[in-house]
Structure formats: structure tokens, C-alpha cells
From TrEMBL:
Protein origin, superkingdom: Bacteria
Gene3D superfamilies: 3.30.70.20
Organism: Rubritalea profundi
PANTHER family: PROTEIN NRFC, PROTEIN NRFC HOMOLOG
Residue span(s) of domain 4Fe-4S ferredoxin-type: 89-119, 181-210
Protein name: 4Fe-4S ferredoxin
Length: 303
């Protein structure tokens, strides 16, 4: 990232802090907006994730772990696994055998420490009429027995685009695409403008309207800075293909929860991977190809 291109939302505030002194500065910050009321000065002045050196990142993680313990009564471990060279992750989904059970969405909800009251998940499962690919007419709120004979089911989540419009519109570069193909968010840098939400044609971004409420016993303690740590109020969040799992050699939680084996995940650069076998032997397609977003999420039907 070129430093001159990074819109540093804290530059002016850092100067003010040096002039006023930290105590007076903290008092001056208090009335700025409602979303700052629970934000410490250290957090507000924190550098962008990609600017942090190892010692600074370690200090930030230690602070967030302590804040989580204080706010939620749960000991958590937050990691920052890095992208590996020669790896680009991709997903494929067999629509012929997806039964619309939504277990993937439930697994996402639990794995990624979503707010319990909202029932949030990064995955929407659309019930679609056979013969139609019009997502806008898909029903994500069905509550009848499944599967229905005249329907098929299409889970939709972040497509991890190679040309992500959500990244292009972010005014503070709080979201970017990692070398292994995953679009991530620095939750501590996001200003909550929601431009990315508006830009995403797949409705894959989520906004935290309130501070997430999760009982301590239900918190997943194995967390990552760029993925499933508990997000602050007033910021955007999104699917990361379970970055905290896949960079440690595990599969995404949604894949492990699928009872029919409809989901295929792996390194698209590995010619022996399952995902490559699908791409080379199935008639795959991507959603809204005409938009030029170049998704890394593929769909197919059995012949």
C-alpha cells in the first residue's frame, strides 16, 4: 500500500492529541459522534492494519483480547495468520444437491461470532424457481419443508471478487484484497460509511447497527484479527471464507456443516486440488458475470 494514497483519518487527531495532552484530548473526542462513545483513544489512533509492525500488531491484539474479556467475560485468542505464497482460494457449489437446509448459514453464524439477537450470517440461501437465475426474485425467507420439487437452492455469500467494487469505493482503504484472494476488512479502521455495502452487487456486506450481543458460553474463542473476532458497533463486516481456519489448513465452517457435500473449496493454483477438478470438468458459472467483478465463487449443476 502506498502511504501517500492512504487517507489517514487520524492525522489531524494525532496532532491535536500532542497539542492538548492525552487527558484533554480524550475529553475533546467524547462528543464527536455516538459511535465513538466506547472507543478508547488508543483504538481511535490505531494505525491501519497494513501499517502495523509485528510489535505494534501484538500490542493491538493484546488490547482487543483484554477488551473482549472485559466486555463479554470470555478469554479469547486472536491470531493474525498471513497469506501463503502460491495460494489463491476459490469456492464452488453444486446446486444440484444443495437442499436449502441453511446449515451453512447457521455454521457461519456460530463460527464467526455474529450477534445472536439479529441471527446474522454472511450466507443467504435463496429459494429459486427451476429454470430461473433471477436472484432478485429468490426467496431468502422460506419457512416451509424443503426441498421443494419445483425449486432449487442457491447459497450466496461474498464472492471474493478479483475486481471487487466494494474495495474501490472505500474512502479510507479499510477493505482490500489479500494475496490469497480474500477480501478483508480492518474493523478498527472502518468508518461505517457503508459505501462498500451499496457497491456490492451480491448483498454480501453486513453493518453492525448495535454492539453484538453474544453469551460468553457461545463465543468462539479461536479468533483472527481480519475475520471472526467480535466486530465493533458501527462498522462493516463480511465473509472471509473463514480466513482464520483456511490459513491454518482447515476448511470453512460452512463447508464442514453441509450435509450433502455440495460445497467444494481449495487452492485454485494447485492443479491437483478438488476445486481445480471442478473447474476443469464441470460447466461452472459465476453470478452477474456481466458486471466484470470476476468472482472466485463458482456454481454448477450436475449434468
Amino acid at each position: 500500500m502506498e502511504q501517500e494514497n492512504l487517507f489517514n483519518r487520524r492525522t489531524l487527531l494525532k496532532g491535536a492529541g500532542a497539542t492538548l495532552g492525552i487527558a484533554a484530548f480524550a475529553k475533546a473526542l467524547a462528543p464527536i459522534t455516538e459511535w465513538t462513545k466506547d472507543i478508547s483513544v488508543d483504538e481511535f489512533l490505531q494505525k491501519h492494519y497494513r501499517e502495523l509492525d509485528k510489535s505494534e500488531l501484538a500490542a493491538v491484539i493484546k488490547r482487543i483480547e483484554a477488551e473482549t474479556k472485559e466486555d463479554y467475560g470470555k478469554e479469547v485468542t486472536i491470531s493474525a495468520p498471513q497469506a501463503q505464497k502460491g495460494v489463491k482460494f476459490a469456492y464452488a457449489l453444486n446446486l444440484s444437491i444443495c437442499v436449502g437446509c441453511r446449515r451453512c448459514a447457521e455454521a457461519c453464524h456460530i463460527e464467526n461470532n455474529h450477534d445472536r439477537a439479529s441471527g446474522n450470517s454472511y450466507i443467504r440461501v435463496l429459494e429459486m424457481s427451476k429454470g430461473s437465475m433471477d436472484m432478485e426474485h429468490g426467496n431468502a425467507d422460506y419457512n416451509h419443508p424443503i426441498p421443494q420439487d419445483d425449486k432449487f437452492y442457491m447459497p450466496v455469500q461474498c464472492q471474493q471478487c478479483d475486481n471487487p467494487p466494494c474495495v474501490d469505493v472505500c474512502p479510507v482503504e479499510a477493505t482490500w484484497k489479500e494475496p490469497d484472494g480474500i477480501v478483508v476488512v480492518d474493523y478498527n479502521w472502518c468508518i461505517g460509511c457503508r459505501y462498500c455495502e451499496a457497491a456490492c452487487p451480491y448483498h454480501a456486506r453486513r453493518f453492525n447497527w448495535e454492539k453484538p450481543q453474544i453469551p460468553a458460553a457461545e463465543i468462539n474463542p479461536n479468533q483472527s484479527y481480519l475475520s471472526n473476532r467480535i466486530r465493533p458497533q458501527g462498522v462493516m463486516e463480511k465473509c472471509t471464507f473463514c480466513l482464520h481456519r483456511k490459513r491454518e489448513g482447515k476448511m470453512p465452517a460452512c463447508l464442514e456443516a453441509c450435509p450433502t457435500g455440495a460445497r467444494v473449496f481449495g487452492n485454485i493454483l494447485d492443479p491437483n486440488s478438488e476445486i481445480r477438478k471442478v473447474l476443469e470438468n464441470k460447466r461452472v458459472f459465476v453470478l452477474k458475470e456481466e458486471l466484470g467483478t470476476k468472482p472466485s465463487f463458482y456454481y454448477f449443476f450436475d449434468e
